[in-house]
Amino acid sequence: MPLYSQFVIGPPGSGKSTYCAAVRDLMIQNCRPVTLANFDPAAEFLPYSPDIDIRELVNFAQLCSSGPSGPNGGLLQCFRVLEDNFSWLTERLPKTSNLYLIIDFPGQIELYLSCESILTLIRRLQETFDLRAVVLNLVDCNRCLESASFLSSCLTSLSLLVNLSLPFLNVLTKIDIYRDSQDCEIDFEEISKCENLSTHMTGLIGTSKFAALHDAICSLLEDFNLVQFEMLSVKDPQLLVQVVREADHACGYMLR
Ligand SMILES: Nc1nc2c(ncn2[C@@H]2O[C@H](COP(=O)(O)OP(=O)(O)OP(=O)(O)O)[C@@H](O)[C@H]2O)c(=O)[nH]1
Ligand SMILES: [Mg+2]
């Protein structure tokens, strides 16, 4: 039985939980079956009520205080607990066909780049179900305001893509904050395609002592077209629908 899934990742504050809440509402409005899981054990506030909640399995504060780890180590430990209790997750998944699971992950990048448990979790979901997942990597569009932060976000995206080895979609979030602003000269639509990057970044590149490096990274991104972004504002239903459409396409839900 296929298990369609969106794994929603991205830096802290990039808009993951807000997106998850909005996309679940959209799916419910469209009578689509959807299960929303919170996988952030340290979440204090969520803008939705999760169907599955890792906080029921692990007590993050207790786990951090009982061992030698700080918060980041504690988070990795939480995913080890989840790995050891895989049936806790599978028992909570509805037994319906065309299951669509959205997972709201924590923002700490080390989870996706240096934590074996996440890869094990993906592999076990693949073994247990016919998993058809897409990773949504949410990036706050304020990362486009400087060339160094934008290029670094693009390289991070590549790194995540390589390590997670799943269909992958990058999303520039909170586009409403700048899109209609008179003061902002950045053409987010152009930047999101990652074409002609050198032209968009010229002003900033020219002033940096890393100009040649930035130029080379721009060429790499343009030549291989490996990173592109969808644009999102949860306040713009059209953009939200477009992101969901791309995600459905990437995970194969469109072709079911
Ligand atoms: N203007 C605007 N604000 C947004 C949008 N999406 C999210 N936000 C705001 O951005 C802030 C962070 O959003 P969250 O959804 O909590 O981000 P997160 O990635 O889940 O954060 P962590 O769980 O801490 O990693 C909140 O204040 C949201 O209201 C958007 O599309 N437009
Ligand atoms: Mg969140």
Automatic annotation (TrEMBL):
Domain of life (superkingdom): Eukaryota
TM region positions: none
PANTHER family linked: GPN-LOOP GTPASE 2 (PTHR21231:SF3), XPA-BINDING PROTEIN 1-RELATED (PTHR21231)
Physiological role: Small GTPase required for proper localization of RNA polymerase II and III (RNAPII and RNAPIII). May act at an RNAP assembly step prior to nuclear import.
Quaternary assembly: Binds to RNA polymerase II (RNAPII).
Keyword Manganese tagged: no
Pfam family, one: ATP_bind_1
One Gene Ontology term, aspect cellular component: cytoplasm
GO MF terms held by the record: GTP binding; GTPase activity
Similarity comment text for this entry: Belongs to the GPN-loop GTPase family.
Keyword Oxidoreductase: no
The protein's name: GPN-loop GTPase 2
UniProtKB keywords: GTP-binding, Hydrolase, Nucleotide-binding
Coiled-coil boundaries: none
